[in-house]
């Protein structure tokens, strides 16, 4: 496969599409599928056939606005319909060439206008299971450019110049990571894509893998070329069956087209990818645990150093990046590192995908330039808190992150700013809470998550999270004391400082950040036995000791 | 270039010491009679850095480093016994005592237990955290040994000695988090497992979790010192 | 200098700590020069007196009576010393915690009773679901672990406390000692 051949395929696809007067794109991401968008697509196809109109009905990946699903986008008029059901098929087909169906139309300028799509540029535009669609959208051009016209160090230079940082949460400079692996000694090296997304409320990686899997594979192949690897693994959770099946279809197509396998682009570069399924352990998102899991061992982390860049999979130098990081690679190579670096803030470049969930109107996936204010994401893009309730906090970064109050909404979204505020960027989960959420209970929820997901290897995390949970439960039932609060803070310090891996080291963050910004709620629970949000049942506080006693 | 030199000098607790490249902080400290508490570490087994008792501070970093797996480097300045470290170590011990049912007075290892001695060494006179009181089993199916999960601290010394030294890999860990448990084979009774009855796991167990049925009361000292010697003899062969 | 008022109390324990206390033998006389024993299982006073200077508590809190007793003791004591592992960790009495009190009562009053097997509802105090150490109910000032702490431990510790000298407890005793 050469660039000319790619162009030829792209041309053919465009010519085929041009035959149609209309393109009707039906979102078939997990969110919309759960509301039968597959049946909707069939109904649309049948109606179009019956009507004799010349329209292409296309399955696409996620369009982002999951709250309004199932979504249908009609081109070339760019009309977006929301909450479309099978029964609406006739109306939509009838409207082709005429006036749009007003009652289904989705008018959310604020939601879409503020976004910048790099990672999601093809999501909702292409059929994720057709490699030709991807190629028609400049797919694999970057890979062929890299292997034909660039040296591995040239590729790394572009990535370094772009200022891209790891999107899995750590924010480690990607270019630096690549160059470390490239410089590591060894004949055999590996590239791993970390798709073990496990944060509650996060679905960025799933959506990217479902909507545009080829882009991730292309990013991995470019990375492999840059660091000198010939073998890659995509580690995906088994809970994402759609992502897995699309990924596998995509690998098959890429191999058939000669974009994976031996002598890619008629060069000596060879690379292939295997899919490995995770068995639902959150800790396997930690890179050393993930490596152990791929090797077929118990998924527990080990102390670093040595880092995977030096000694990773089967002791070989290994590059591990997150799904979203790899999804950024192809556009960077196509447009150059400078183009990417022009977006975003001082030390956080480019864009970031967030999964907006919780008490927010426009639940779904958004991609925004780094540096954008939290307030803009929540109030403009997210449409604010529904039902006239009052905003209370936004949780970023999953169980490792923290809860930020109203007063922190004017900080720009970047690795450093969020860290300074007591939270983290994380992989991009963003849970909005209103005044019906009790922050003590929220902290307890996240600690419970970490407790059940702790691997049990090191003591601070294994037993520490369990004790933290016990103390928080005491607060939530009205039996906690101020001495317990003191003990909790001491416990958080030990778990944070002494745990082996990131899971334990960050497990206290939800507690620490709620203690920082919502300490009064803790005091309310402990001293006044009162939960202002009305979430916690304080019955135990007034219960007579006799109730604890055996008859 | 001092980086390629084999012999390094560093400072531990204000004391200047020399070391060979590749040595860990723990090794160098022990050579120089600087005591760093450990539980999961045992000479002769690979280190896993799991118990976190050996964490130390290194000048220039705010993080804590497990001494058993952290290699030394030239000019390193290590502090092994600061107030902060003692606080964390005591908390870790409290977590261990509350995690399962450690009743010293009725334990076969009373007086020979590494957990018990550490509590005394680190000045732990009581535990502030609430006891969890989990319901755990005792496996007495083996003709020679007993496994009492009430006393297990999941240091995995038994797992490692069985896999690395005996080569049988009968022991392993099951479950996750607070529900983790050591098991024999695929959670078969110890007595019906593929155990070779060598007893190494019993000797390396730091508490009374694994013990010899022939012993009564607290008459159960353990002798894990055979390991380095055994390894040495095997290498020499 | 007037003598300090000393009390000792016995919750859920085997009385071994009191035995060990008595094992101080002739050193008890020495101690008596500085303290008056105002309340103890060893003396015949029924109610806990007011304004006690030092109280030694043996045993874990296992019943409603224990709980009421320790709260009263705390309210009337300047310095509360938990003695022995039962008071400090729950020790042997706490071994019933994982299974709860019902099987214990069944075992004692039904399975092993030859006459009128029944669980008593008067005289025997109601058991708490979970046996817990003293400091989970009230504040404790000094912890003297051991099962039991030795007579020497008692002597060294009490002498130091009475004379206000520094006391290094971990050097004297440990859990299970």
Average pLDDT, all residues of chain C:
94
| Outline of chain A | globular
* Amount of helix of chain C: 25-40%
**How many β strands of chain C by DSSP?**
7
* Cα gyration radius of chain A (Å): 25 Å
Biggest interface and residues each: A-B, 32 and 34 residues
Helix content of chain A: 40-55%
Strand line-up in the sheet with most strands of chain A: 10-9-13-11-12
In angstroms, what separates the terminal alpha carbons of chain A?
A: 81 Å
Structural class of chain A: alpha/beta
Strand content of chain C: 15-25%
Question: How much is the radius of gyration of chain C in Å?
Answer: 17 Å
* Average of the residue pLDDT scores of chain A: 93
Principal-axes shape call of chain C? globular
Beta-strand content of chain A:
5-15%
Give a quick account of the main beta sheet of chain C: strands, pairing sense, barrel closure. 5 strands, parallel
- Encode the helix/strand succession of chain C as letters: EHHEEEHEHHEEHH
Largest sheet of chain A: 5 strands, mixed
> Helical element count of chain C?
7
What is the topology, as strand order, of the major beta sheet of chain C? 2-1-3-5-7
Distance between the termini of chain C: 35 Å
Protein name (chain B): Bidirectional hydrogenase complex protein HoxU
InterPro entries (chain B): 2Fe-2S_ferredoxin-like_sf, 2Fe-2S_ferredoxin-type, 4Fe4S_Fe-S-bd, 4Fe4S_Fe_S_CS, NAD-red_Hydgase_HoxS_gsu, NADH_UbQ_OxRdtase_ferredoxin, NADH_UbQ_OxRdtase_Gsu_4Fe4S-bd, PSI_iron-sulfur_center
Family (chain B): Belongs to the complex I 75 kDa subunit family.
Cofactor (chain B): [4Fe-4S] cluster; [2Fe-2S] cluster
């Amino acid at each position: 496969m050469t660039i000319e051949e790619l162009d030829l395929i792209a041309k053919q696809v465009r010519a085929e599409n041009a035959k149609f007067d209309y393109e009707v794109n039906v979102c078939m991401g997990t969110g919309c599928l759960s509301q039968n968008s597959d049946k909707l697509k069939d109904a649309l196809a049948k109606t179009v056939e019956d009507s004799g109109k010349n329209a292409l009905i296309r399955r696409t990946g996620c369009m982002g606005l999951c709250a309004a699903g199932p979504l249908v986008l009609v081109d070339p008029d760019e009309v977006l319909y929301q909450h479309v059901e099978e029964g609406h098929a006739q109306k939509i087909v009838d409207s082709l060439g005429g006036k749009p169906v007003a009652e289904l139309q989705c008018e959310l300028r604020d939601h879409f206008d503020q976004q910048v799509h790099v990672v999601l540029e093809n999501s909702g535009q292409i059929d994720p299971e057709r490699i030709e669609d991807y190629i028609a959208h400049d797919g694999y051009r970057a890979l062929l450019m890299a292997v034909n016209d660039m040296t591995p160090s040239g590729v790394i230079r572009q990535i370094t110049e772009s200022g891209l940082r790891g999107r899995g949460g750590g924010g480690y400079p990607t270019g630096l990571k690549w160059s470390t692996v490239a410089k590591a000694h060894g004949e055999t090296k590996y590239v791993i894509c970390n798709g073990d997304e496990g944060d509650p409320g996060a679905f960025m990686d799933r959506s990217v893998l479902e909507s545009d899997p080829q882009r991730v594979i292309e990013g991995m192949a470019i990375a492999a070329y840059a660091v000198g690897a010939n073998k890659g693994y995509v580690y995906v959770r088994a809970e994402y069956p759609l992502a897995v099946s699309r990924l596998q279809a995509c690998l098959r197509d890429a191999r058939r087209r000669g974009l994976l396998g031996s002598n890619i682009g008629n060069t000596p570069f060879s690379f292939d990818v295997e899919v490995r399924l995770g068995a639902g352990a959150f800790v396997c998102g930690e890179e050393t645990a993930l490596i152990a899991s791929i090797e077929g061992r118990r998924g527990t982390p080990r102390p670093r150093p040595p880092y995977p860049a030096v000694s990773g999979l089967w002791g070989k130098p290994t590059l591990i990046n997150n799904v979203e990081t790899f999804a950024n690679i192809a556009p960077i190579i196509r447009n150059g590192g400078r183009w990417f670096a022009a977006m975003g803030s001082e030390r956080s470049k480019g864009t970031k995908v967030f999964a907006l969930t919780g008490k927010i109107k426009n639940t779904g996936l958004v991609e925004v330039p780094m540096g954008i204010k939290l307030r803009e994401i929540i109030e403009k893009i997210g449409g604010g808190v529904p039902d006239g309730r009052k905003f209370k906090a936004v949780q970023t970064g999953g169980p490792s992150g923290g809860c930020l109050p109203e007063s922190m909404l004017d900080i720009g979204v970047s690795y450093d700013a969020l860290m300074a505020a007591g939270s983290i960027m994380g992989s991009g989960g963003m849970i909005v809470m209103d005044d019906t959420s009790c922050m003590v209970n929220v902290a307890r929820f996240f600690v419970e998550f970490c407790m059940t997901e702790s691997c049990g290897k090191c003591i601070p995390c294994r037993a520490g999270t369990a004790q933290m949970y016990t103390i928080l439960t005491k607060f939530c039932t009205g039996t906690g004391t101020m001495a317990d609060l003191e003990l909790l803070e001491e416990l958080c310090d030990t778990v944070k400082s002494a745990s082996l891996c990131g899971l334990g080291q960050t497990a206290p963050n939800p507690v620490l950040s709620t203690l920082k910004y919502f300490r009064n709620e803790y005091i309310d629970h402990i001293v006044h036995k009162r939960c202002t949000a009305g979430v916690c049942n304080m019955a135990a506080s007034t219960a007579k000791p006799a109730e604890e006693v055996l008859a | 270039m001092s980086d390629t030199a084999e012999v390094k000098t560093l400072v531990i607790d204000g004391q200047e010491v020399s070391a060979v490249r590749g040595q860990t902080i723990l090794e160098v400290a022990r050579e120089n009679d600087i005591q760093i508490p450990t539980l999961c570490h045992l000479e002769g087994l690979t280190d896993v850095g799991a118990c976190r008792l050996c964490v130390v501070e290194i000048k220039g970093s705010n993080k804590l480093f497990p001494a058993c797996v952290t290699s030394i480097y030239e000019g390193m300045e290590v502090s092994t016994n600061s107030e902060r470290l003692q606080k964390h170590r005591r908390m870790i011990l409290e977590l261990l005592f509350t995690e399962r049912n450690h009743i010293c007075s009725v334990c076969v290892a009373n007086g020979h237990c590494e957990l018990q001695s550490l509590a005394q060494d680190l000045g732990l006179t009581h535990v502030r955290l609430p006891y969890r009181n989990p319901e755990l089993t005792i496996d007495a199916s083996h003709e020679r040994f007993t496994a009492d999960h009430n006393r297990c601290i999941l240091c995995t010394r038994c797992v490692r000695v069985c896999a690395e030294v005996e080569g049988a890999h009968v022991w392993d860990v099951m479950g996750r988090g607070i529900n983790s448990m050591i098991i024999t084979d695929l959670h078969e009774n110890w007595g019906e497992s593929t155990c070779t009855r060598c007893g190494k796991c019993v000797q390396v167990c730091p508490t009374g979790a694994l013990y010899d049925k022939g012993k009564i009361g607290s008459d159960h000292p353990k002798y894990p010192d055979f390991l380095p010697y055994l390894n040495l003899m095997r290498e020499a062969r | 200098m007037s003598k300090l008022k000393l009390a000792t109390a016995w919750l859920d324990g085997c009385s071994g700590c009191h035995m060990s206390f008595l094992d101080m033998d002739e050193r008890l006389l020495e101690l008596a020069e500085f303290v008056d024993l105002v309340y103890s299982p060893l003396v015949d006073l029924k109610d806990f007196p007011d304004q006690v200077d030092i109280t030694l508590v043996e045993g874990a809190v296992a019943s409603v009576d224990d709980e009421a007793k320790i709260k009263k003791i705390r309210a009337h004591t300047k310095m509360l010393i938990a003695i022995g592992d039962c008071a400090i960790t729950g020790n042997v009495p706490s071994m019933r915690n994982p299974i709860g009190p019902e099987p214990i009562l069944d075992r004692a009053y039904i399975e092993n009773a030859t006459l009128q097997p029944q669980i008593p509802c008067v005289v025997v105090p109601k058991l708490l679901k979970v046996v817990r150490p003293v400091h989970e109910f009230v504040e404790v000032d000094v912890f003297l672990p051991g099962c039991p702490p030795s007579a020497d431990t008692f002597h060294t510790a009490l002498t130091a406390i009475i004379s206000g000298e520094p006391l290094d407890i971990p050097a004297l005793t440990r859990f299970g000692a």
